[in-house]
Specification:
Distance between the termini of chain A: 41 Å
Shape of chain A: globular
Oligomer: heterodimer
Helix content of chain A: 10-25%
Largest sheet of chain B: 3 strands, antiparallel
Structural class of chain B: alpha+beta
Largest sheet of chain A: 5 strands, mixed
Number of helices of chain A: 4
Order of helices and strands of chain B: EEEEEHHHHHEEHHHHHHHEEEHHH
Helix content of chain B: 40-55%
Number of strands of chain B: 10
Strand order of the largest sheet of chain A: 1-2-5-4-3
Strand order of the largest sheet of chain B: 3-4-5
Radius of gyration of chain A: 20 Å
Shape of chain B: globular
């Protein structure tokens, strides 16, 4: 199916759960609310014509600098091995409650990317069997891929220059 | 475990916990897995990753697009051109640039050479893990020739950064093309040699056939990709399914396995070595003349000779070096077929010269949970074979 046909079909079958849909640079993209995520994902996998049996990846994104509402986004990329078409599902997440249901019951390959989302962005994945840090050490503080995560901090090595070093412990915007 | 009244440790289960890695030669990097053993059989596994975490995705958010390319080399360090290509194709899709034909052909040649080098390292180390020392030395010998070719065209043996935005770094010289030709004529006989050592070798067959089996459905569900998925019988090769860089113009087969065991993965990868030879051969035969990068001075540097006579070229040169390429606002994902499977970058651009988010879809990262599922229920001696057959590279697992 072409991207236009996929969008057409998804919209007609799951109309009330699809916030919007577009063809972006040739790729089919649908926008879904977190509450409808699991239902739409299940439909994408189980529908005989779509048959998205392969999860390509799950990505988080933080749009803090663009001042967007909602601030966070989770992006799923699905592919169908037999039908050879793909779709991107984008789920906006509120800053106050970044919670999404797991899709690891549908695609077991989602176990690691979802843990990575928790590790790097602090999103809560409901129903994930083992939601713990994946790449960072267990005792790590903060979630590194957030845009407001401090980039330049320095440990205070000696107590006598604590006041001096405080100036260094500040968030600096990335150099452009 | 609990402590009894006598002060002795008492196990709840009749099992033993065995730690493997991170400093273990057969984990191919720094992969740690805790094995719960029931006698000689693996009961449960608990993988630990992150020992090689370098924060490349975070660093990329503070670097210009051009500066990210050398960092992508360090992700899958056994085949840097595939990463370069995935990153450049994604950025070029956002820029909506058409790449000249010659650049596409040179990209294909580099990527296929990298695939061969990567598969040679895989065969060498995998065979060594299982105990075949000779193959290790033979494969290293042939890989060395690819590294020499890399050095000749890009100046670097491994981290080539040869593929750039809008084309490639340098044009190929006739001498280099002759060198590639010579290598392509030389390699097939050597592949026969490896196959003579392994394919019908009873020890090799005993250690690989029927071990680490993954069915087609499981492999798809675990998001395996590349040779592992194809060895399970799923026909999924992005060079055929979603052609990029002109792969649709090449005539090659996608080798498929039937049983999805270690032996089939070996056969698939060895067949891929031969297919790569075919692709490079065709690319050399049909290599078009013309520019090796786009003429658009907003994306690639203007010709050095024009700087002395053209004011405009000088301005473009200055702007490109000091400011870099500004990419239109948007987000996209382009997957390519790396030696390990689907490599892709998801890039979000906020319209500036620095990406807002760069995410790597790494085949090794996605394969780790599936690999550990494969280990459960097999003998401890086969754990090493299974890790080798997946061909993980920790650089792209931990990023």
């Amino acid at each position: 199916m072409t991207s236009e046909e996929i969008i057409e079909k998804v919209k007609s079958d799951q109309g009330e759960d699809i916030q919007s849909a577009e063809v972006n640079l040739g790729d089919a993209v649908i926008f879904v609310a977190p509450a409808a995520l699991h239902k739409v994902a299940g439909y994408l996998k189980m529908d005989a014509d779509l048959n998205f049996d392969y999860l390509s990846h799950i990505t988080g994104a933080d749009y803090l600098n663009e001042d967007r509402d909602p601030r966070f986004e989770v992006v799923y990329e699905f592919h169908s091995i037999d039908k050879n078409h793909s779709i991107r599902m984008r789920v906006g997440l509120e800053e106050e409650d970044p919670t999404i249901p797991t899709v690891s019951d549908l695609w077991r390959g989602a176990l690691y990317p979802e843990r990575e989302l928790f590790d790097m962005f602090g999103f809560k994945i409901m129903g994930h069997p083992n939601l713990s840090r994946l790449i960072m050490p267990d005792e790590w503080g903060g979630h590194p891929l957030l845009k407001d995560y401090p980039l330049t901090t320095e440990d205070i090595a000696f107590s006598h220059n604590r006041d001096f070093k405080q100036d260094l412990v500040k968030t600096k915007p990335p150099t452009r | 475990m609990s402590v009894t009244e006598q002060g002795l440790l008492e196990r709840e289960k009749d099992s033993m916990t065995l730690n493997m890695g991170p400093q273990h030669p057969s984990t191919h990097g720094v992969f740690r897995v805790v094995l719960e053993m029931d006698g000689e059989v693996v009961d449960a596994t608990e993988p630990h990753i992150g020992f090689l975490h370098t924060g490349i995705e975070k660093t990329a958010e503070a670097k210009r697009y051009v500066h990210v390319i050398p960092m992508t080399d360090r992700l899958d360090y056994l085949s840097p051109p595939s990463n370069n290509l995935a990153f450049c194709l994604t950025t070029e899709k956002l820029l909506q640039t058409e790449i000249p034909e010659r650049a596409n052909y040179l990209r294909v040649i580099m990527c296929e050479l990298a695939r061969m080098a990567s598969h040679l390292v895989w065969l060498a180390t995998h065979a060594l893990d299982i105990g075949a020392m000779t193959v290790f030395l033979y494969c290293w010998r042939e890989r060395e020739m690819i590294l020499d070719l890399n050095e000749e065209i890009s100046g670097v043996r491994m981290m080539t950064s040869y593929i750039r935005l809008g084309g490639v770094a340098k044009d190929a010289t006739p001498g280099w093309l002759r060198g590639v030709r010579k290598f392509i004529d030389y390699l097939p006989a050597k592949i026969d040699e490896y196959e003579r050592l392994l394919t019908n070798n009873p020890i090799w067959i005993d250690r690989t056939q029927g071990i680490g089996v993954m069915s087609r459905e499981d492999a798809i569900n675990w998001s395996m990709s590349g040779p592992v998925l194809r060895a399970s019988g799923a026909n999924f090769d992005l060079r055929k399914q979603r052609p990029y860089s002109g792969y649709e113009n090449f005539d090659f087969e996608v080798p498929l396995g039937k049983n999805g065991d270690i032996y089939d993965r070996y056969l698939v990868r060895v067949a891929e070595l031969r297919e790569s030879c075919k692709i490079v051969e065709q690319a050399l035969k049909n290599l078009p003349t013309g520019p090796y990068k786009v003429e658009d001075s907003k994306i690639s540097l203007p010709n050095r000779n024009t700087l002395k006579s053209s004011m405009e070229a000088l301005i473009h040169h200055f702007k490109l070096v000091s400011e870099g390429v500004s990419v239109p606002k948007g987000e996209t994902y382009v997957p390519v077929e790396g030696p390990r499977g689907e490599v892709g970058f998801y890039i979000i651009s906020d319209g500036s010269n620095v990406p807002s988010r760069v995410k790597l879809r790494a085949p090794s990262f996605m394969a780790i949970p599936g690999m550990c599922a494969m280990m459960e229920g097999c003998f401890i001696a086969d754990v090493v074979g299974i890790i080798g057959s997946i061909d993980i590279v920790m650089g792209e697992v931990d990023r």
